[in-house]
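Wait, can you check?
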Amino acid sequence: MIQSILFFAVGLLLLIKGGDWFVDGATGLARRFHLPDIIVGATVVSIGTTLPEVMVSATGAMLGQGAMAYGNAIGSIICNTALIAGISVAFNPGPANAKTMKMPVIFFFSSAALYCVAAYLLGYFPRWMGLVMLAIFVVYLILNVRQGLKHPDEVEEEEESDGKPRTLLMELVLLVVGAALIAVGADLLVEHGTIIAQFLGVPETVIALTFVALGTSLPELVTTITSLKKGHASLGIGNVIGANVFNLVLVSGVAVTLAPFEVPVGKLLLGHNASLVLDIPLMLIVMLLLCVPALTRKKLERWQGILLLCIYAAFCLFQFFV
């Protein structure tokens, strides 16, 4: 058991460092070939920070552990919104750029509606739905890039590193090694997360909804904290909403396309599948709590952040103690 906990922790570290190196290498290569910053940010960086979730969910699905893929996507969205965005809003409330938030919010709830059709009406996620999700992801990327090129002043650019410029070989090494670390880390996380779940007698979905989701969301957490320190809280919120869209259409899309799976039953609540009664509704509720005031009042208030953090704490307590 101790060995599995250690391997689980190593898997998390490999995912974090691998994602960091992959983004650094890919960004360096993109800029070396003079791609605009907006295209780099909307594609390379966004996909790179979501790779941990993609690999964990794809690995889980291909190993026949649909619960891990399913729980990781939903858990990451709840974690991103209730914990990560909650921290940002609680510590630094302020104006919200409703104009730039509008498109990702529309895409999120449209994709969530498709997700709910699979979960509540079909009871499983068929391959065609995975392909539809991936198509939505491509459309979202294209629109993101077009919006950025049309309104470049609305996009906050990533700061350049103060270190020495990297050579082409260094950037290629970072890209390849980063991708390899993500793959190995995802494998360790799924394998030993399952062992830990079995040892503790809790469903795989609980591990995926909590520990795995938090671990794979660490890139977004780091981005949000960094944005807070630099006085750019709105940038952190934007990254969270964008990451949530990616979790629905890219992470779930890849997993379902590779290996369709049924809606897992982890635990029961009021005699029904807790995932359908609690997890998916909570995913939608926390996003509504974050987005509706931002879009209608064009500002984020401290009470929202405190409420989101309380909801996340209650969610975690429920998963392990109820």
Observations:
- The chain has eleven helices and six strands.
- The domain at 2-321 is CATH 1.20.1420.30 (A middle domain of Talin 1).
- Residues 85 and 237 are 6 Å apart (CA to CA).
- Residues 155-162 have pLDDT under 50 and may be disordered.
